[in-house]
């Protein structure tokens, strides 16, 4: 499928936006708009108001009098935070996540790299993707959020995994952290210094349906596993894993792969979230779970993203002649380029081969882009990014309109009684978001 630059800019430009509150630091603001510009930079290559956290709503406040365009709705929707644990969906034109019934996650276990290959970093390894061999984005600090996407796919017509009986379009999209130290290892029966945590943001998919969830691992923990955790399968006898509940979505096809994105966030003393975005930019589903389970926010330094098999270490078999461009954007609050490291963390694979070198981007964005292909040898030339400033300007316009509408509503019956606090907090949040957006546009686009 082909999407215009304007569509890419609107859809993915919004993806990186996070909540801005009056107490946020300047680095938090930079992270928010760095993510926005990063998505625009990454995806324009191929194109040729946040709200403060408020109490539970005692009475309903009608929608704004002006219905947003679908593009603006996506932008606003994707920067609306998940402030509680649960499963969520979204429906145009309401700018809100709607809680939905969670379902059990697939009992598949997206396994880590087996012990002999763990912690092994390579250099230019052109073996097939997965089982420790991938290109990942590394930062010097800690990652607050990451977005994996496929800016361009070529000749991908079928994807299957052997453990589903070759059901059509059976695969997983995985956004994986590095292995990291977690306080839960202090209770390891093995008292092992090699015990570590590992977090995966997942879409496990087949033509029959998909599930969005997170899977946490305690690698090298030993037995017994903590309560509610599962024993890992044969070959991983010292490992334990925990699946969150999942948000069910419609099954995605190989044709939908281009433009699809998976975002993961880790918030200290808050929620870790997984959000899957369709090729047309609509949010398909999201889920959140407390960061305090393993405290990923304090250990996330590397992000791996790719398409893999449907769990249990299997391969995603992609048809012959296919190639995929992979983008991994990381938000660590700096303007530094991430390091592109030849390292992966999942035990699942696909049958494509990595193409070197990877491209690195900095400034207000931090991202890497690379290619994998069925055609060997293959080549990849690092592209130049187009100007993302128009996309940022459109979001500022939306913030201005939103603030004006909410101010005009303050004097109406909509904001009387118990609803007054909600309306007042909304105006404060609108003002902070607009001021931050204008400051970032001045910094990123001084001549605009």
Describe the structure.
With about 450 residues, the protein is of the alpha+beta class. It folds into two domains: about 5-80 and about 390-445, no CATH class; about 115-375, Jelly Rolls (Sandwich), CATH 2.60.120. It contains five helices and 21 strands. The chain has helices at about 5-15, 25-45, 70-80, 390-410, 420-445; strands at about 85-90, 100, 130, 135-140, 145-155, 160, 170-175, 195-205, 210-220, 230, 240-245, 245-250, 260-265, 270-275, 285-290, 300-310, 315-320, 325-330, 340, 350-360, 365-375. The strands form two sheets. Strands 1, 2, 3, 5, 6, 13, 14, 15, 17, 18, 20 and 21 form a twelve-stranded mixed beta sheet that branches. Strands 4, 7, 8, 9, 10, 11, 12, 16 and 19 form a nine-stranded antiparallel beta sheet that branches. Helix 1 packs antiparallel against helix 2 (about 25-45), helix 1 crosses helix 4 (about 390-410) and helix 4 runs antiparallel to helix 5 (about 420-445). The longest helix is centred in the last third of the chain and has 26 residues, at about 420-445. The two termini are about 30 Å apart. Residues about 1-65 have low confidence and may be disordered.
């Amino acid at each position: 499928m082909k999407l215009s630059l304007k569509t890419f800019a609107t859809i993915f430009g919004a993806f990186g936006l996070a909540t801005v509150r009056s107490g946020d630091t300047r680095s938090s603001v930079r992270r928010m708009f760095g993510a926005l510009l990063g998505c625009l930079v990454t995806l324009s290559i191929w194109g040729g108001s946040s709200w403060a956290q408020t109490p539970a709503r005692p009475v309903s406040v009608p929608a704004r009098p002006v219905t947003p365009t679908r593009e603006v709705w996506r932008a606003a929707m994707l920067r609306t935070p998940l402030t509680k644990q649960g499963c969520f969906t979204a429906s145009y034109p309401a700018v809100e996540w709607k809680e939905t019934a969670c379902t059990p996650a697939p009992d598949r276990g997206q396994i880590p790299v087996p012990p002999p290959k763990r912690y092994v970093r390579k250099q230019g390894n052109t073996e097939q993707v997965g089982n420790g061999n991938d290109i990942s984005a590394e930062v010097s600090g800690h990652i607050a959020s990451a977005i994996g996407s496929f800016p361009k796919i070529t000749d991908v017509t079928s994807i299957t995994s052997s453990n589903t009986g070759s059901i059509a379009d059976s695969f997983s999209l995985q956004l994986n952290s590095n292995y990291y130290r977690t306080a839960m290892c202090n209770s390891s029966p093995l008292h092992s210094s090699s015990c570590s945590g590992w977090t995966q943001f997942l879409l496990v998919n087949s033509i029959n349906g998909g599930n969005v969830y997170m899977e946490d691992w305690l690698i090298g923990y030993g037995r017994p596993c903590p309560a509610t955790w599962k024993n890992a399968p044969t070959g991983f006898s010292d490992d334990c894993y925990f699946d969150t509940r999942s948000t069910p979505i419609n099954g995605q096809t190989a044709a939908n792969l281009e433009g699809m994105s998976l975002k993961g966030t880790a918030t200290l003393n808050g929620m870790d979230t997984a959000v899957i975005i369709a090729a047309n930019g609509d949010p398909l589903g999201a889920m959140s779970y407390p960061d305090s389970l393993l405290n990923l926010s304090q250990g996330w330094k590397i992000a791996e993203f790719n398409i893999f098999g449907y769990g249990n270490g299997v391969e995603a078999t992609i048809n012959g002649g296919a190639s995929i461009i992979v983008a991994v954007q990381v938000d660590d609050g700096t303007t530094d380029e991430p390091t592109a490291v030849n390292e992966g963390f999942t035990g699942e694979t696909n049958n494509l081969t990595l193409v070197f070198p990877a491209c690195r981007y900095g400034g207000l964005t931090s991202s890497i882009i690379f290619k994998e292909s069925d055609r060997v040898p293959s080549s990849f030339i690092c592209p130049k990014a187009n100007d993302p400033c128009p996309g940022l300007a459109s979001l500022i316009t939306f913030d201005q309109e939103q603030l004006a509408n909410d101010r005009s509503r303050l004097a109406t019956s909509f904001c009387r009684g118990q609803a007054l606090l909600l309306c007042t907090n909304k105006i404060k949040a609108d003002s902070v978001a607009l001021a931050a957006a204008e400051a970032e546009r001045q910094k990123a686009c001084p001549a605009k």
